């Protein structure tokens, strides 16, 4: 069918449909102020239908809406345009889905709105169809080797070429002008250097438009061909990428808000967006059961003025889209979302009818219904944490990710509350960082000058610092100023070496141990300018049969240096402490960190004291009731103690969690609650309050509970 004719037919059918059916609208339980952007309520229960092209032919708007209502969803993400149009586009540079039904998208939007469900439409401008590529090859990516990134008949585009810089805005404008949407979601924004669907890296885009734009930005520099952080040209390229993405996002923001300020912009970026989206997905070993807590805390604490929506990705991998992860894992992800301040969000392949793996649907229905029932107790949180962990970016990977996760794992198992701050945001959060008693830098490098200044100022104000592995290796002066440390050799294979926890006044968790084995990096640093040195490093000794081993002598190096500042201490552990625990899990390595924390700031361990097993995740939040009549209130209404039961996680498999009984808690609280009740058990919890501490017990914990402590 001719696209223009299809479009006119769609408009006509839509008009007839509107005349034939009475306009109905389901009223919300309470009305939020009209001037408040709808997403600011932070009560998302979102389901995304990632539609394969062929499902556009069979999708039934009525059954889709019924499924959304059955699962207590209040927001839908559905395909609209970009890679292909799921509506009758009039633009010849946008490929039309051959299975597209002219009235499908319009009917979905209308029927969702009749039931009070918001609709966010999905765009993906990372690729164009082969027919578009053949007409405009200059719009697409070229690798340093002259290769294209291709998925079947879809070609990756260049962000600085005309398709993204001009045509994408015209596509978005067409959709906004045609449908009364509530938001737009941008999938895969920014620069593409990988083919993630095939797991192949291709390299920095060498498209002539990119070359020209980078030369203009950098006063004539040539576009780099390798990602080398030590190369100043590559560092300039990183700032160029950030600049161009933000400029594009700014233009998009201006366009969308000029059309309708109540249209939300949702994507994985942080500038010029309303909803920051993140993803919990399982695609590598070892599995990370705290992924949702990690993602949400990182985004919430790094960008406190944004709404965060962390999506549980249903598929196992890009190569296995039709098989879902285990229901127990999805349940953990969703509970961690709401415990940390996100709404609920799950991404499905297609709609829910005729689904290839429906095992998670009951878990979604259960948690979404729970959130709907107790919605006032979610979404407006302030952390109680006195510890901040700096994250190596929003999407950590490689060895820095392992170090970072290992440090988190130690804190989680010790039930020490902590926040996560993205490394790039440290310089923007000076006042916030001063409020922490302890900041941990797990293998954090390449901090900006402003971020370093903020850390130094926090140290002067009384915040203790712990840095591990190669942290700040690129800034020798800061290493000396903060830690009294000088690098002799930052990379040294520690396999076969030992650490000696000989200072028993500091290292109290090592009864019966005088030597701690090591593996991975064991940096050799000069701590002569530090005030104290601990953990002498012993040499590798003699390898061989039992008869000849030994010879582990003092090497002259130490694995821990302490610099005393006027109001704080700074500890450097130039060792892969977190990575070793993340991959191998020997508690002796966790105990190093816990003893150091007790040495620096024992008060941070007193916020929550419990007999709960290590696999019970404990998240304590201050809350303000999240209701329309309360939206201007700033004073807290109490605290919520979230308990996520991870006892069913075996390392490689998610089983049903084991019920845990007779849990006791001692919680620092400056008020005596009017009452405490269990959301899951729907009954009061007995407690006592004395000398600024609450004491309470919970007779049974199954998969989750939220204990509300009302003022």
List the helices and strands and how they pair.
Blueprint: H1 3-20, E1 45-50, H2 61-70, E2 75-82, H3 104-114, E3 118-124, E4 127-129, H4 130-135, E5 150-151, E6 154-156, H5 162-178, E7 183-187, E8 194-195, E9 200-201, H6 208-217, H7 232-259, E10 264-267, E11 275-280, H8 291-302, E12 307-313, E13 315-317, E14 320-324, H9 327-340, E15 344-349, H10 361-373, E16 381-383, E17 387-391, H11 398-413, E18 419-422, H12 430-434, E19 438-442, H13 449-461, E20 464-468, H14 476-483, E21 486-489, E22 498-499, E23 516-517, E24 524-526, E25 532-538, E26 554-564, E27 569-573, H15 577-584, H16 587-600, E28 608-610, E29 616-623, E30 638-645, E31 660-668, E32 675-678, E33 683-684, E34 687-690, E35 693-701, E36 704-710
Parallel strand pairs: 1-2, 1-15, 2-3, 3-7, 7-10, 10-11, 11-12, 12-15, 17-18, 17-19, 19-20, 20-27
Antiparallel strand pairs: 4-6, 5-6, 8-9, 13-14, 16-29, 21-24, 22-23, 22-25, 25-26, 26-27, 28-31, 29-30, 30-36, 31-35, 32-33, 32-36, 34-35
Helix pairs in contact: 2-3, 5-7, 8-9, 9-10, 11-15, 15-16
């Amino acid at each position: 069918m001719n696209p223009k004719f299809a479009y006119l037919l769609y408009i006509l059918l839509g008009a007839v449909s509107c005349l034939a059916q009475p306009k109905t609208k389901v009223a919300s339980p309470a009305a939020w102020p009209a001037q408040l952007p709808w997403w600011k309520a932070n009560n998302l229960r979102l389901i995304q239908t990632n539609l394969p092209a062929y499902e556009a032919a069979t999708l039934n708007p009525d059954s889709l809406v019924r499924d959304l209502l059955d699962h207590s969803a209040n927001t839908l993400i559905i395909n609209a345009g970009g890679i292909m149009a799921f509506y009758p586009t009039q633009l010849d540079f946008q490929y039309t889905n051959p299975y597209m039904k002219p009235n499908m998208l319009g009917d979905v939007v209308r029927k969702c709105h009749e039931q009070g469900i918001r609709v966010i439409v999905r765009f993906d401008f990372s690729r164009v169809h082969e027919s578009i590529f053949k007409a405009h090859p200059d719009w697409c990516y070229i690798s340093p080797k002259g290769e294209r990134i291709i998925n079947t008949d879809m070609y990756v585009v260049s962000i600085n070429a005309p398709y993204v810089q001009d045509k994408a805005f015209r596509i978005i404008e067409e959709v906004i002008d045609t449908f009364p949407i509530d938001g737009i979601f941008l999938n895969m924004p920014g620069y593409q250097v990988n083919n993630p669907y095939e797991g192949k890296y291709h390299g920095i885009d060498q498209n002539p438009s990119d070359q020209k734009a980078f030369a203009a930005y950098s006063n004539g520099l040539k576009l780099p061909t390798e990602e080398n952080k030590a190369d100043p040209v590559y560092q300039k390229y990183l700032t160029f990428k950030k600049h161009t993405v933000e400029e594009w996002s700014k233009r998009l923001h201006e366009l969308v808000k000029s059309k309708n300020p109540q249209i939300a912009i949702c994507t994985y970026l942080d500038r010029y967006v309303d909803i920051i989206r993140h993803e919990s997905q399982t695609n590598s070993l070892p599995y990370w059961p705290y992924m949702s807590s990690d993602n949400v805390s990182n985004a919430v604490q790094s960008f406190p003025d944004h709404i965060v929506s962390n999506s549980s990705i249903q598929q196992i991998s890009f190569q296995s889209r039709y098989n879902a992860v285990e229901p127990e894992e999805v349940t953990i992800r969703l509970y961690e979302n709401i415990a940390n301040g996100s709404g609920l969000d799950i991404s499905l392949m297609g709609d829910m009818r005729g689904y290839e793996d429906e095992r998670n649907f009951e878990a979604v229905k259960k948690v979404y219904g729970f959130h709907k029932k107790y919605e006032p107790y979610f979404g407006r949180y302030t952390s109680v944490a006195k510890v901040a962990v700096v994250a190596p970016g929003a999407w950590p990977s490689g060895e820095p990710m392992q170090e970072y996760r290992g440090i988190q794992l130690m804190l989680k198992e010790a039930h020490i509350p902590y926040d996560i701050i993205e490394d790039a945001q440290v310089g923007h959060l000076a006042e916030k960082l001063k409020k922490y008693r302890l900041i941990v830098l797990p293998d954090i490098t390449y901090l900006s000058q402003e971020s370093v200044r903020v850390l130094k100022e926090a140290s002067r104000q009384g915040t203790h610092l712990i840095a591990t592995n190669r942290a700040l290796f690129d800034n020798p002066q800061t290493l000396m100023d903060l830690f009294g440390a000088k690098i002799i050799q930052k990379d040294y294979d520690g396999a076969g070496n030992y650490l000696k926890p000989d200072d028993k006044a500091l290292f109290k968790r090592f009864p019966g141990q005088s030597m701690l084995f090591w593996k991975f990096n064991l940096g050799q640093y000069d701590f002569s300018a530090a005030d104290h040195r601990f953990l002498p490093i012993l040499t590798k000794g003699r390898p061989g049969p039992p008869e000849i081993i030994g010879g582990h002598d003092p090497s002259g190096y130490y694995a821990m240096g302490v610099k005393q500042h006027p109001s704080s201490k700074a500890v450097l552990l130039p060792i892969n402490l977190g990575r070793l625990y993340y991959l191998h899990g020997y508690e002796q390595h966790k105990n190093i960190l816990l003893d150091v924390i007790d040495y620096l700031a024992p008060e941070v361990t007193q916020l929550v004291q419990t007999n709960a097993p290590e696999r019970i995740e404990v998240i304590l939040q201050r809350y303000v009731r999240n209701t329309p009549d309360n939206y201007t209130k700033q004073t807290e209404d109490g605290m919520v103690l979230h308990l996520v039961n991870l006892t069913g996680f075996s390392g490689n498999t998610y089983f049903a969690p084991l019920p845990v009984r007779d849990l006791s808690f001692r919680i620092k609280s400056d008020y005596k609650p009017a009452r405490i009740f269990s959301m899951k058990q729907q009954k009061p919890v007995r407690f006592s309050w004395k000398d600024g501490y609450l004491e309470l017990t919970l007779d049974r914990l199954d998969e989750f509970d939220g204990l509300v402590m009302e003022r």
